[in-house]
Amino acid sequence: MLAIREMVRRKLQFGLVTGVVTLIAYLVLMVTGLGLGLNQLAGTALLALDGDHLAYSDRSNLSVIRSQLSEAQVKDIASAPGVKASAAIGYVAAAIEYQPGEVETAALLGIDLGSIAAPKVIEGRSLTPQDRRGLLVDRSWASLTGTRIGDTLQVPVGLATEPFEVVGVADQGSFFFQPAMFMLRDSWRTVSYRSVDRETPYASVVLLQGGGLDGTRGSGWEVVTKDTAFWNIEGVSAQQGTVDALKYMGLLIGAMVIGVFFYVITLQKVALLGVLKAIGASGLYLTAQGMLQVFLVSLVGTVVAAGLAVLTKATVLSSDAIPIAFTTGAVVSTTVAVVVAGVLGAALSMRQIGSIDPIIAMQQQQ
Amino acid sequence: MALLELRDITKSYGEGAQRVDALRGVSITVEPGEMVALVGPSGSGKSTLLAIIGGLLTPTSGSMLVAGADVAKFDARARSRYRRDQVGFVFQSSNLVPFLTARENLLLVGEFGGADRAALARRADELLSELGLTDAAGQAGNRLSGGQRQRVAIARALMRDPSLILVDEPTASLDSKRGAQVVEALRDEVHGRHKACVMVTHDLEMAARADRVLEIRDGLLQVHQAAV
Predict the structure, then answer these.
(1) Does A6 sit within 8 Å of B99, measured CB to CB?
(2) Contact state of B81 with A272 under an 8 Å Cβ cutoff
(3) Which CATH number fits domain B4-98+146-226: 2.40.50.140, 3.50.50.60, 3.40.50.300, 3.90.1300.10?
(4) In chain B, which residues have their Cβ closer than 8 Å to the Cβ of A280?
(5) CB-based contacts of A184: which residues, under 8 Å, 6+ apart?
(6) What's the CA gap between A339 and A331, in Å, rounded?
(7) Which value does ipTM take for this structure?
(8) Are A188 and A250 part of one and the same domain?
(9) Is A280–B83 a contact, with Cβ atoms under 8 angstroms apart?
(10) Which of A185, A354, B63, B143 is positioned for an S-S bond with A283, CB 3.0–4.6 A?
(11) More confident site: A242 or B72
């Protein structure tokens, strides 16, 4: 096939542009990975919860930080039409001392035992009613601080700290860019409000299972989907917007580079393309050859970039401290996006190929 | 029966005071197995006439019958098929695809569709052998000598067994000895395969090797001569 033979025989020319596409696709993939990693930090713990919806205080503007629900409201939410199961969850951010003088922040989530909010334990054991000073820490916390089961962490309560024992490890990810930790909800109330009485908030939000709950409202509360809840986590939408802008800029640059390369290469080949038309090649055949080259350059460049990106994550950027993550879906969709951008970028050149007049085969020699 | 029959072909560019008449009523017939040379000074209209015969340009008026079909009325797609199936072009500078070998340049026409590729491969080997190019078959187009390139171009023109061979200044980039060899090879193919051939040339010595020489001046056919 003419297109492939040209690429094979003009290795330097096509190798260079494939290299440039690789670099651009690599940049786009890393930005995509960064967005994914930041999103995981922002709320994998929320997304991992075994429910479809979340109920907030209607004055919280869908902020888990500001949402406070009373016991009556939690009961009201649990009995709302369509609710199959519910779990009250408390949230507070805390600076945890894991070694004398060594502090890291964590997202403390208060849960009820046996509820749908209880995390799956991957190491150690689950919390029990007796674990009023017990904690389940996320795998990322254990990796970051070297904490092991049986270790004692100092959790701030008011201006003082109290010792909590790590009883197990969960794999729920992060919440608000901090590793998640789980404790009994009663303990959470103490940690958050020091003294607990009838006026103390009962939970921050309520996790719900059930259908058709989105938009349900009650006395001082409202229900949204888990997806809406995620995008309302402070900073997530702005962060995703920034990442998307960088990604689209990368795709635009990729499209322009591929477009300019094939435009120049088409200009260089106008005479040859004219000759091919003169000896019987149709515009469709020549355009198909050009499109095949664009597709192959974009595909090879992007696939190499995907390999490099995954390799980079597995080696140089393997630490949990660097928020870059890849999923098969993200890599495939980004690969497709770069290839589509390349094909669109080269559309002008392909149009030019179709419109070359075969008479040029004779004119060029006069 | 004539393979090619041009009746009162005109070609004009521009309008009003800017109008230029490149051809002013040219009528020609060419028989199968006949090689016709078109001569004339630069700007006389001979290349325009060749382009019209080859379906690269459409005439302003007149009819052009090739094997009975009026090519002048073909649309762009039909002209493309006409060039592919019925015309073999040989250009001044051979215009081979530089990154393909001599053999690949011949086989390339099979990619344009409507041909049996296995038969084309056999035909390519046969033509390379006939034209003394067997040893050069694997060499890239841009590494062949000028004479070899023109012979490959002749072979490419014959690949799809067209009824009409159109040749534009085939010896312009060759010395007289190699030029004569190329025209002889072309003449042998035209006669041997019973093709109709129209060759545009400045070189009267090469034109003399044709069966008939036609002269064009200012867009008009001047003289019909017998072969020298």
Answers:
(1) yes
(2) no
(3) 3.40.50.300
(4) 80-81, 83-85, 87, 109, 112, 160
(5) A110, A111, A112, A113, A127, A129, A131, A132, A134
(6) 12
(7) 0.86
(8) no
(9) yes
(10) A354
(11) A242
